[in-house]
Amino acid sequence: MTYPRIYLVLDNCFAIKRWVKPEQWMELAKEIGFSYVEASTDNEIDPLFSAQDYMDDWFAEVERCSKKTGVKVVNFYTGYQTYRTVGLAHHDERMVKQLKENWLFNIIERIGKCGAYGLGFCFFAIPDRVLQNPQEHKKLVEKLYDEMSDIVRFAYEQNGVKISIEQMYAPHQPPFTISDSEAYMKNVLERAGNPLYITLDTGHMVGQHRFFKPSAQEVEKSFSSSEPEIWLGGESVHKLWEEYKANGNFAEGADVVMREMEKYPYMFAEERDADTYEWIRALAKYSPIFHMQQTDGTKSAHAPFTPETNKTGIITGEKLLKAIMHSYEDEHEIQAPVEDIYLSFEIFAANVDRNRDTINGLKQTLSYWREFVPEDGMRLDELVKRL
Q1: Fewer CB within 10 Å, N side or C side of the chain?
Q2: Is the pTM of this model over 0.85?
């Protein structure tokens, strides 16, 4: 068994609108104590609105500042700009081509030249019209597999850049379940011949409990409410629920509703999908990029790991490292496990946060995690032995 090397990484999303030049956020990363950075494209390097000569200068400045500070940009990640779109699932092929060629291929080529490890993104959402039509949904997902395969193939031609997609919260933003994540990896590997990876975010399991599939008994009981308090999936299921609530035939209605729900398997999560550590145990060995945030399990606030947030937080160094170890010791494999895992702290600063407080929160975050990863690049088995 070859265990991965573990690195602590600072996502420069904390610097958005404040420290916008590479020399500024790289100097800050060094001051805080990080040697590795993940570059968010929201911090003045989004390919769709950045001039190409500006991007040339930006990458040159990153290389220059890296030599000066010793801080290395190891990964890139999409930000809020593209997150607010349906992205690769767009209904107009011209938009898909624009995003692939002028966004993804553009930055992937640059990443390959600068020697960074990989690119991660949340780059698509399924429009509701498609969600409500199982045949259209299946067709679109197959197309997404093909689009992702094209991107992965292109990335491997650019000095082996690794592509990760981020797991999300809800049916319209796949993959939002463990099994759906596995399906993306399996289908892309089969079509592209190279692996697609998954980015696990420690706070992205707070919504799945809203999409559990109810039992027939729960459906029948729900007819006594003015609105169903359970998740029924597709709109056709809701219409049937309303019909049977009106006619009072609850037992038959529950049976009909349950059969209709079978048309929408992609609308439902399982209990394990609402558990951060279940995701890690299942998929950590396919996740070169972790997005790290403290969470109490009810919200994804991208909070730092401070003494205050850790009191109610469910993410601990001991549990996380043991869950990663479990993943690597599981003999079942979809594809080859990754050799490096970058625990990337995606800590957002609110508009009203004071700079000094933001920086102190990041220093406290690093201090906490250095208890578990004292040196970057240590092997997972070494770290677990120390627990």
Answers
A1: N
A2: yes
